[in-house]
Amino acid sequence: MILPNPTEALTLNPLLNAITEDVMGFLNEIQLNYPQAISLASGRPDENYFNIEEFPEYFGIYVDWLATSSGQEPEKIRKSLGQYNRAKGIINDLVVRYLAKDEQIEVAPEDTLITVGTQEAMVITITTLCNRENDVILIEDPAYVGITHLSIIAGYQVEPVPVDGNGISLLKLEEKILACQARGKNVKLVYVIPDYQNPTGNAMPLENRHRLLELADTYGFLILEDNAYGEFAYQADTPLTLKALDNNKRVIYLRSLSKTLYPSLRLGVLVANQQVEHGGQLVALSDLLAKTKGYITVNTPSITQAVFGGILVKNNFSLKKINEPKIAAIKAKRDQLLASFNEYLTGENNAWAKGISWNIPQGGFFITIFVPFAVTKEEVIICAEQHGLIFTPMSFFYLHEGGKQQIRLAFSNVSEEEINTAVYRLAEYFKTKLHLTQ
Length: 438
Ligand SMILES: Cc1ncc(COP(=O)(O)O)c(C=O)c1O
Hints:
By secondary structure, the protein is of the alpha/beta class.
């Protein structure tokens, strides 16, 4: 395509300008610009647990399993894995066994879609369910920017609901729904990350989960539950997901496999067991979602689905065992982080730090630090340059404004030793800031 004269302005999607900060772009760039700095900025899974050389073995296990269970020739199966495939996915029967076993979510294979990560699942869900004129998507604020920025660029109405230490504020949610209704708007979706939220690290207690489901019944909205970190709980006995508690089919469930297995597989599971009225008929929502997906990515790569299928078959449809060491490792990192905070930020020698505090996450990859000064994008650069540490300002995750005096640290893809050094450097940076702001 020949572009018009570059001096002529191209007419682009004006909504691109509504995204205040290209968070991912900025963080990638700063990591490239300061390669020596320790990065506690991105929630990447720990690469020490990657074994991609095992992929061919898993692929073979899947082919053998399908050959045995379906009676087809392995050669024919291999050929079909090189072809276009079903929009809903090809390993749905295996995935529902995993959901039942590990997460107590009981659904039929036809109620699921295997998607290109949960990011695609969000695109499919929003574009299938929402109309731009009347529907409002309520999101936790702060939230994972994948949902926020997608909704904005695609022109959907998205509004924030504050989160507190227990996840989305149910009081504010109800107020917001009533306010939307008073303006003639329809709250269609409420997006939440109940387990070890990105970015705060907080989790939603069981009673709040029940109450949120009740509110969905009362006000007739659907909950979009995003679970990317649920199994990374530091102790046993954690609440079930909203989907597992969902007796009235109010929840659309997004299960990312990026943190659990590999982001490079680009696999997510979308669970939608609702029936909806469409064209005067009741139809399965999952069928409509599959129709939409057909026009987005056609189908999720069969090759990566086969690898995941092989992982499930080999592990008897449960990822618990293979994730045990990863969970132990992330808990040890959280413990190291808290120990380093205690060493460098509390106690008599560190009286200067008394205005600094943090939450204590019970799972996941993130922690929030509260500081008595504003943390801007420029501060990230200063800290990287002068102290060799990269963090993320919490304000990046707010829809409009907020979190100006908060920092998100992601501690998943660094060693315990690096964490200790990072907290030491953070304390050095804080000292300069407190001195400057006194
Ligand atoms: C809460 C949350 N949801 C979804 C994603 C993206 O998941 P996926 O790689 O499955 O698209 C992330 C990635 O960081 C996340 O933190």
